[in-house]
Amino acid sequence: MPFYQKGDVKIYYEEAGSGFPLLVIPGGGLNSTVAGLKTHPFNPLDEFKDQYRVIAADLRNAKGGQSTGPLETGRPWDAYTDDHIGLMDHLGIKGFMVLGFCIGGPFIWNLLKRAGDRVVAAVPVQPSGYRHEMPELSYKNNMKSWGPELCERRPDITMAMVDTFLSNMYRGERADFVYTVSRDFVRQCRTPILILPDDVPGHPYAVALESAYLAPNAQVSLYPWKMSPIQIRIALRHVRAFLDNNRPAVAAQPLAVAAQ
Description:
The structure is a single chain. By secondary structure, the chain is α/β, with parallel strands linked by helices. The protein has a single domain, classed as Alpha/Beta hydrolase fold, catalytic domain (Rossmann fold, 3-Layer(aba) Sandwich), CATH 3.40.50.1820. Helix content is 38%, strand content 17%. The chain has 9 helices and 8 strands. The strands form 2 sheets. The protein has a 6-stranded mixed sheet, sandwiched between helices. It has a two-stranded parallel ribbon with strand order 7-8.
């Protein structure tokens, strides 16, 4: 089984297909895993392997996953983004597209902030965001379920550390939009973006639409898009057309070659 390792971090990943690289970030919050893609409205490893090199990884320390690493309480979002960028570096990939479910939405925006010159296009699917009428939702849900379970598996991690970690993720100045970037950043982000919105407590429709209105090269798929197999197929046609339209005409050079 393939792993990427850097220091104390060990990331499990899977690949399918060939072609221009498409990084997939599974949903499931902080328990995001490749196996979890089987429960999603669609599995990109199956849907896009005919034309793309699809790459997906378990999130660091996710329940049921095989990726492990320290709990970086002071920089939670960036620690995970380090893993995503590090995996692409490990695979020798410079330019890539990214599609992310749920928590993959904030991760996509952080990738655009950290490595915007490498992300060719992005597809946030049912993205997570801050819901003003439920300001403590993500923090409390993870303190109740994810945190205690993690501490049981990892005696080196305490609930006090989890509290700091989750507070830095979901509270404070960042917690009024997409968690990882400001509205000003989104206004200036020219990367092509296709958003498939949702409207459940953790995936606010209003935030998904606001990010689409602000980003100059953003578009939105139909909504609702996952109530029936027909709707999902139409949304997938939209995603495929978006990826195909933004895929570079010339195959991306490996990272080592491009850096020369």
